[in-house]
């Protein structure tokens, strides 16, 4: 017990020291020019890109999740692609000016960013959050996932060294190396932390939102993919299998369930097998359900980011070595239906839709189980169908005729490259954007007067007569009368009030 307490105390002290160092460095960094900032950001992006392969291997070795070659691609997106998307963004001084309306916009940094990193993408997310923080003159304090501390810390070391070599103040990039949930929670409530960038499980994101700090959090991505009857089946299935097998399904935007039009189901099944899919029979499906979710309503963490062969062995099923994904046909959706949940692994559910309306109902049920606001994938040659789904589905991204996993993060689409995908209010988030540098700065506005407003002049007002004045008038009237006169004071008071009201109305 003493050892555990000591570890927690040391972790909390490490966190406080990191925040102080980050704040001190950020105070200096605030005075840097746009040219200085851009030079630092480019140096960090180049260094991260150069180490993409090495850190990809390190991530797989430490976490046991994913594919090293695919982690390399993620690291390249998190470094080079992110840099290319933000390099021309103005983040210092006056960043925009409307001369006609005499309004100028001025950028100001948030300060210290607390960044929570997931175990599924520990190095690419670290690169991404560091780059967008430095671009906006913020400091960043990173809390890695307990199972990915070494590779995340090494990624940040690469960033920090490159930043300092390019002229940044030492201490801008900090990493907490002592795994402690208590330290992470205290980081999110630290008075010198100005914003939280939370990528991780639902409990952690909720903690970020309840910290009292501004926070960008993301929701789960139980992504359905609809294969509509007009789709180019060969290409669609190839994209889907490539996407689902990419890094063994660890990107939250990866497809989780195929919804196929009944008219093309047999063609889809044929293409799935051709592309390395293993279709489970009923007995195998029952075994796989227990492997996916030994405890009802919860996905087994032992399958996350694992190969199909590893998952099959865990389920007691034998599959060929060349299999890339595992598919189980399903008809129901719910927490008690393992195949319908977000599995973050190369395991697919497949539903058959009788028509487009039925397909929408299935997609909505899958999203409502745990993916509202995130993404939906669609393969069709009918643009009207794509637009209909885009309008009707409660998601922030609709990926058409592409790999959902890579497309959602900007790899194969024109979306902003990002490793933090907002889910909007559909999923309880503040933004539906792909979060980037533009989300990490305050924008002040200076506005000159350009319009004149005429106020009414010489407005006559009738003074309000208080109750005490009414009583005074009544008393004076009573005194002026003869004592022999019989006068009711209440009657006089009523008459006076009526006269006063009439005068005010006039």
UniProtKB/TrEMBL annotation:
Q: Which UniProt keywords apply?
A: Oxidoreductase
Q: State if Cytoplasm is listed as a keyword.
A: no
Q: Which domain of life is it from?
A: Bacteria
All copies of domain Aldehyde dehydrogenase, residue ranges: 14-276
Q: What terms describe the molecular function in GO for this protein?
A: oxidoreductase activity, acting on the aldehyde or oxo group of donors, NAD or NADP as acceptor
Q: Does the keyword Oxidoreductase apply?
A: yes
What is the protein named? Aldehyde dehydrogenase domain-containing protein
Q: Which organism is it from?
A: Domibacillus aminovorans
Taxonomic lineage per UniProt?
Answer: Bacteria, Bacillati, Bacillota, Bacilli, Bacillales
């Amino acid at each position: 017990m003493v050892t555990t307490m000591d570890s927690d105390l040391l972790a909390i002290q490490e966190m406080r020291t990191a925040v102080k160092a980050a704040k001190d460095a950020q105070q200096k960094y605030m005075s840097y020019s746009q040219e200085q900032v851009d030079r630092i950001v480019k140096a960090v992006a180049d260094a991260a890109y150069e180490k993409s392969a090495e850190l990809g291997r390190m991530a797989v070795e430490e976490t046991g999740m994913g594919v090293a070659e695919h982690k390399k691609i993620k690291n390249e997106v998190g470094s080079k692609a992110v840099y290319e998307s933000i390099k021309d963004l103005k983040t210092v001084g006056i960043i925009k000016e409307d001369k006609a309306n005499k309004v100028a916009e001025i950028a100001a940094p948030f300060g210290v960013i607390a960044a929570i990193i997931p175990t599924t993408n520990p190095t690419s997310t670290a690169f991404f959050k560091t780059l967008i923080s430095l671009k906006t003159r913020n400091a960043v304090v990173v809390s890695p996932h307990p199972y990915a501390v070494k590779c995340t810390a090494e990624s940040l070391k690469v960033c920090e060294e490159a930043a300092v070599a390019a002229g940044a103040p030492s201490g801008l990039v900090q990493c907490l190396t002592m795994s402690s949930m208590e330290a992470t929670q205290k980081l999110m409530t630290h008075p010198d932390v100005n914003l939280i960038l939370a990528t991780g499980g639902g409990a952690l994101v909720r903690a970020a939102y309840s910290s009292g700090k501004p926070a960008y959090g993301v929701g789960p991505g139980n992504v359905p993919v609809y294969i509509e009857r007009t789709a180019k089946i060969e290409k669609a299935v190839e994209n889907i299998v490539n996407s689902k097998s990419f890094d063994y399904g660890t990107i939250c935007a990866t497809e989780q369930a195929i919804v196929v039009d009944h008219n093309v189901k047999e063609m889809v099944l044929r293409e799935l097998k051709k592309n390395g899919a293993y279709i489970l029979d009923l007995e195998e499906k029952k075994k796989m359900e227990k492997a996916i979710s030994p405890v009802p309503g919860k996905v087994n963490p032992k399958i996350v980011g694992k190969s199909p062969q590893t998952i099959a062995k865990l389920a007691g099923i034998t599959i060929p070595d060349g299999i890339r994904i595992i598919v189980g046909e399903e008809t129901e959706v719910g927490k008690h239906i393992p195949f319908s949940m977000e599995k973050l692994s190369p395991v697919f559910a497949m539903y058959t839709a009788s028509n487009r309306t039925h397909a929408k109902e299935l997609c909505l049920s899958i999203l409502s189980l745990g993916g509202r606001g995130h993404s939906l994938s669609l393969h069709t040659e009918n643009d009207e169908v794509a637009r209909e789904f885009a309008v009707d589905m409660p998601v922030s991204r609709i990926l058409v005729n592409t790999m959902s996993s890579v497309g959602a993060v900007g790899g194969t689409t024109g979306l902003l490259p990002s490793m933090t995908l907002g889910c909007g209010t559909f999923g309880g988030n503040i933004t539906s954007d792909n979060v980037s540098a533009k989300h990490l700065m305050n924008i002040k506005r200076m506005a000159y007067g350009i319009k004149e407003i005429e106020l009414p002049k010489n407005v006559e007002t009738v003074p309000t007569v208080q109750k005490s004045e009414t009583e005074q008038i009544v008393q004076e009237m009573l005194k002026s009368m003869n004592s022999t006169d019989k006068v009711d004071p209440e009657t006089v008071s009523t008459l006076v009030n009526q006269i006063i009201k009439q005068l005010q109305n006039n």
